[in-house]
Specification:
single chain; Immunoglobulin-like; 4-stranded antiparallel beta sheet
């Protein structure tokens, strides 16, 4: 509770700091416009130099406002490029295993990363993934480029049984400045149904290698006979 309050307060202060300068510039521009109009009325339009001075003042104020808006946009772009970005998704590997990966593909560390499933898939031991240590508690720190991988079950077993194939995944995490991010995605694993087959045993692979070797020897023997 205290940690969430500190994080929210830090984010609030950074948000106020980024917006206060823009709001102040707008207020100053409005004030200058009012003062310029008031001065113009007092002058009674008697001196053209007064009009030129007013126009120059307004132009300078407007240029300052545009410059500040541009700086604010550049700051937003920099914050977006320097933020963490957590990707949480199901994946099938060359080993035939169905896994769930959590990757920080951003350029800044992610804090207190929490993953929620709906419905909750079960792994090879019939455990709910939400009870596995990787998901039962928030991951306190994930640096840029770091990947966590949780094995679920062999792919052909997953699709052989009558299991759900659509899962909603909610990812909640924070930046070091306290900004909260939330990603909601729905994963449909139906496209992997026919891609997962029962993996061969080691003796099956050895037999394939032996057969391939025999074919190579046979081809070399035929080439040698033709040459001789």
């Amino acid at each position: 509770m205290n940690l969430n309050f500190k994080r929210s307060w830090a984010y609030l202060k950074s948000s106020i700091a980024s917006r206060s300068s823009l709001a102040l510039a707008i207020l100053l521009f409005i004030l200058l416009a009012i003062l310029a109009y008031w001065g113009w009325q007092l002058s009674g339009n008697q001196d053209s130099s007064d009009g030129i001075a007013v126009a120059a003042t307004l132009f300078a104020a407007l240029s300052s406002l545009f410059s500040l808006i541009q700086i604010t946009e550049m700051q937003k772009q920099r914050e977006a490029s320097e933020r963490p970005y957590i990707q949480a998704y199901f994946d099938d590997e060359y080993t035939g295993m169905l896994v769930f990966k959590v990757v920080n593909s951003g350029s800044a560390p992610a804090l207190d990363v929490k993953i929620e499933f709906n419905p909750v898939p079960r792994d090879y031991a019939n455990r709910r993934l939400s009870s596995v240590s990787l998901f039962s508690n928030p991951i306190s720190f994930i640096p840029p480029g770091k990947e966590y991988r949780q094995i679920i079950i062999q792919g052909y077993v997953f699709f052989k049984k009558s299991r759900r194939r659509k899962f909603a995944v909610k990812t909640i995490y924070y930046s070091s400045s306290g900004k909260r991010f939330e990603e909601n995605t729905t994963h449909d694993l139906s496209h992997l149904r026919h891609a997962r087959v029962t993996p061969k045993q080691s003796d099956g692979y050895l037999k394939d290698i032996a057969d391939e070797q025999k074919n190579i020897v046979r081809e070399l023997s035929n080439i040698k006979n033709k040459i001789s």
